[in-house]
Specification:
Elements lengths: L1 E2 L8 E2 L1 H15 L30 E4 L5 E4 L4 E2 L8 E8 L5 E8 L10 E4 L1 H4 L7 H4 L2
Antiparallel strand pairs: 1-2, 3-4, 5-8, 6-7, 6-8
Length: 139
């Protein structure tokens, strides 16, 4: 048993129980993105922003606080314009210094944000699948 996740969830679970919990949370939150690829010095494609396979729009891929990955929109919107299931916030993880070392996506739950507070919507809220086939033609 050990602590899991990127932020302390006040839980100590075995590997099997943690994966069951994290996978269920990811399913409910829509956090189904693939992790970012490790940079390869011979391949510059990792520098390019990732794109959505359905609509070919750029997305921001971040780890969640429970070690899964989520695709987020590139813009922040007021909370009043984003339905509750799609609201995320980006949180900097502190290191031993005052400089944040990593950014984690955290679902906004419990207390609703004020209507004007900025939140980052999940990309799936803004995704309009490309029915013309142009997304498949793009590299």
């Amino acid at each position: 048993m050990r602590d899991r996740g990127r932020i302390d969830l006040m839980a100590r679970l075995c590997e099997r129980c943690w994966n069951i919990l994290a996978n269920e949370m990811a399913r409910l939150d829509g956090a189904t993105a693939a992790p970012r690829a490790e940079p390869d010095p011979d391949d510059p494609s990792w520098i390019e922003p990732p794109t959505c396979p359905q609509c070919a729009m750029p997305v921001r891929v971040y780890p969640t606080n429970y070690d899964r990955w989520v695709s987020l929109a590139e813009v922040e919107l007021p909370a009043k314009d984003v339905p509750e299931p799609f609201r995320w916030r980006l949180t900097k993880l502190p290191g031993r210094s005052h400089v944040g070392i990593d950014v984690v996506a955290v679902r906004v739950r419990g207390l609703d944000p004020l209507p004007g507070e900025p939140v980052v919507p999940a990309h799936r809220m803004m995704c309009v699948p490309d029915t013309t086939g142009e997304a498949a033609d793009r590299p």
